[in-house]
Amino acid sequence: MAVHPDPHRSVAASELERQFAKAKASLPETVSPELLFQVLAPIAAAVRDSHTSLAPPRAEADLVLPLRVHGDEIRLARALHPLPAASRVLRVDGHSAASVLGLVRSFASAEHPAAVDVVLPGLIPFARRLLGLSPHRAVLEVVTPDGIEMRAVITKHTVQSTRTPAVESGVFPNGVIYLRLDTMAGDLQEHRDYLSEFFAWVAEVRPPGLIIDLRENDGGNTQVGSTLLSYLTARPHRIFGQKRWRVSRYMQERVREMGRWSEPYLAASPGSFLRESPPVDAPAAIEHAFAGPSVLLIGPRTRSAAMMTANAARDFDLAPVLGEPTTSSPNFFGESYRYWLPNSRLRASISSAEFIRANGDALDRGPVIPHANLSDEDGIVSPQDEVVAVAIALIERHQTLAKAGDGELAARVPLAGSPR
User: Fold this and answer.
1) Rounded distance between C-alpha atoms, residue 139 and residue 155, angstroms
2) Assign residue 86 a region: left if phi > 0, alpha if psi is -120 to 50, beta otherwise?
């Protein structure tokens, strides 16, 4: 507990101690990674922080299916030949969808029950392992969106042949450009290089508007989000209102390994807190910044740094935000310290910082709420779905007003919120 800034906000210290003591007493002298995960993961989940978690043991051979979860319902997030996207999964290798989810629901670390559904697909391979199923193939029985029952054997080859890239871009017939970003993790400079090249291309094309789709973005580095916003707006803003970072020798070692990216943190005494409250400033001028209307799309799977980016756009009215609310609040814990348990080699993660939403309201525990609450009927993100259609209509409305000469009103349309 030397790393987390407030580990007892959702669970009392005495309760965590009781759970650790019970776990220690129940474990045999020799324990498998699978059993250790089953005992420790619910303790991490009790903290109710998606960045404080234990990852299940996984093998390279594990079959990871592209799934979406809502309650006890599982749907295909994309087509797995011959099964169409958005098919509702009835059974996995003869086991009901509800029973598969029931095996792993208590292991999922999330801020509240609705957010648990977002992380459950990543735990389903472990559920299949507990059931003694093949890691190489799965038999799925589904009901298609048209109401037809189908059965298919899915292999890793099936999944890999339909895998979608983390970035997708394109131009609609009316000239609007679409960009889907599914992560802000990885090398910061690579993200910046990509955005630089993308917006240089946008400057050449000069589209009537941009749609930035963050509905599948699982987060990463907030600096990626800040860079993205700097291309979209010159309005003053900040990505978060305050960061309260607990200093620990564990995280200091990690910061040092990652290139000494925070000298003040390295110089601070373990046990103390660093507090950062960025000013609300206009971003520095950037080459190829886009001056036209842009729309951000969000949803339940917009997480962490992506959620903070969308929240900044919402709190400071930088652009209309369409889609569904996020499942986590921008008042949350993050800045993960990640490490391996020495014997089991299980991957653990602990938050080291608390973030306050961009407008500084620490009391608002709600999620990021879009200007217009819209969802695709099938719940499958794509450039053809209903949410994208509304975003296009909003940009076209702006274009119509601008051509009519009402420049002042046109300038307000991208910030007006719900389209009329």
Assistant:
1) 9
2) left
CA dist 242 to 8, 69, 239, 278, 373, Å?
Answer: 20, 32, 9, 7, 27
Q: Are 131 and 314 in contact (CB under 8 A)?
A: no
CA 242 to CA 359: how far, in whole Å? 9
Is the overall model pTM greater than 0.85, yes or no?
Answer: yes
The 10 Å Cβ neighbour count of residue 77 is 20
Q: Indicate if the pLDDT at residue 401 is higher than 90.
A: no
Q: Which two tokens stand for residue 202?
A: 């946008």
- The residue written with tokens 């917006």 in the block is 199
Long-range contacts of residues 112-115, Cβ cutoff 8 Å, at least 24 apart: 112/48, 112/327, 112/328, 114/300, 114/327, 115/50, 115/300, 115/327, 115/328
Instruction: Kindly state the average pLDDT of the residues 90-117.
Output: 95
Look-up of token digits 């999964």 = 89
The region of weakest confidence among 167-176, 301-310, 311-320, 372-381 is: 372-381
Res. 348: pLDDT tops 70: yes
Q: What is the CA radius of gyration of the chain?
A: 23
Sequence length of the chain is: 420
Query: How many other C-beta atoms can be found within 10 angstroms of the C-beta atom of residue 72?
Result: 14
Q: Around Cβ 197, how many Cβ atoms within 10 Å?
A: 11
Secondary element (H or E) of residue 276 = strand 273-276
3-30 pLDDT, tens digit per residue, is 999 999 999 999 999 999 999 999 998 8
418 pLDDT exceeds 50? no
- How many separate helices (H) and strands (E) can be counted in the chain? 13, 17
Supply the DSSP symbol for 328: S
